[in-house]
Amino acid sequence: MKIEKYGAVDIGSNAIRLLVATVIEQKGKDTLFKKTSLVRVPIRLGTDVFMTGKISLKNAARMIDAMNAFRLLMNTHNVTRYKACATSAMREAGNGAEIAEIIEQKTGIKINIIDGDDEATIIASTDLKSLIQKDRVFLYVDVGGGSTELTVFANGHKVDSHSFKIGTVRLLNDMVEETKWQEMEEWIKEKTKPYKKVEVIGSGGNINSIFKNSGKKAGSALSYFYLVSFYELIKSYTQDERIVEMDMNPDRADVIVPATRIYLSAMKWSHSKNIYVPKIGLSDGIIKSLYNEKLEEITLQK
């Protein structure tokens, strides 16, 4: 048995996360990936970028502090491999590449600014074997602060994927044109039309929060009607009431409304009655990609 720890840094539009995972290799058995630690910092870069076109000096300083903290945590965990990926906010920031260079100089952490298709591919590489079966069709919906990544799975394989600039932080700041919604609707309808039954897999912090609120057991699905009733409930509350009455963090209490709208729209346009929430996202995909890179290195050395 060989045990290592990998680190994944996900720099999103709403929050920055560090996932430390324990990778357990056993001879003759599937490799196990166990989540050991998850740290989330709600810096909300998207508010900067989508409003002004660049990352503010204040948030750049906060990012440097966060990356230094993440580096120390990875050292403490004896992380042997790590990768940091930045998504919508940093790739759209006029000073994104400059900030990434400064962060690498000050913290030693190199940031890979990935595009929407790369993001969707990394997310799709996560281990969904328990859900994606050959006789079922799924629409994978990952909702972030700046974008929503969609992937269609059929016959156990990825069919197509696309990234749309529809995210919770953009919606909060009224920065999503109606044409963007129409484009996403058309894409979902076109890609799911060939199939009689489509189910949705939801990814992201908001759908995880919704699932936790439901009280359902892991592996269970949330129905479209449950999500509709939840949406009506949270809309009836003010943000302050969501924080107090529903025990939400302040940085969750505002974005959860537009996030629920996105998931509901995806379910409606794909005619899906259920959404599954396996708690898998970009961080998990980064961990899996790190392991695959290691296997490729071993193969090349032989």
Tell me what you see in this structure.
Residues 40-290 form the Ppx/GppA phosphatase N-terminal domain. The protein has two domains: 2-116 and 283-301, Nucleotidyltransferase, domain 5 (2-Layer Sandwich); 128-279, 2-Layer Sandwich (Nucleotidyltransferase, domain 5). Helices cover 47% and strands 24% of the residues. The chain contains 13 helices and eleven strands. The protein has helices at residues 45-52, 57-76, 88-92, 96-107, 116-124, 168-172, 178-192, 205-214, 224-236, 239-245, 250-253, 256-269, 282-301; strands at residues 2-11, 16-25, 32-41, 81-86, 111-113, 137-143, 148-154, 157-164, 199-203, 221-223, 274-276. A hairpin with a 4-residue loop joins strand 6 and strand 7. Helix 2 (57-76) crosses helix 4 (96-107) and helix 5 packs across helix 13 (282-301). The model has no long low-confidence stretch (mean pLDDT 93).
Write the layout of secondary structure elements.
Elements: E1 2-11, E2 16-25, E3 32-41, H1 45-52, H2 57-76, E4 81-86, H3 88-92, H4 96-107, E5 111-113, H5 116-124, E6 137-143, E7 148-154, E8 157-164, H6 168-172, H7 178-192, E9 199-203, H8 205-214, E10 221-223, H9 224-236, H10 239-245, H11 250-253, H12 256-269, E11 274-276, H13 282-301
Parallel strand pairs: 1-4, 4-5, 6-9, 9-11
Antiparallel strand pairs: 1-2, 2-3, 6-7, 7-8, 10-11
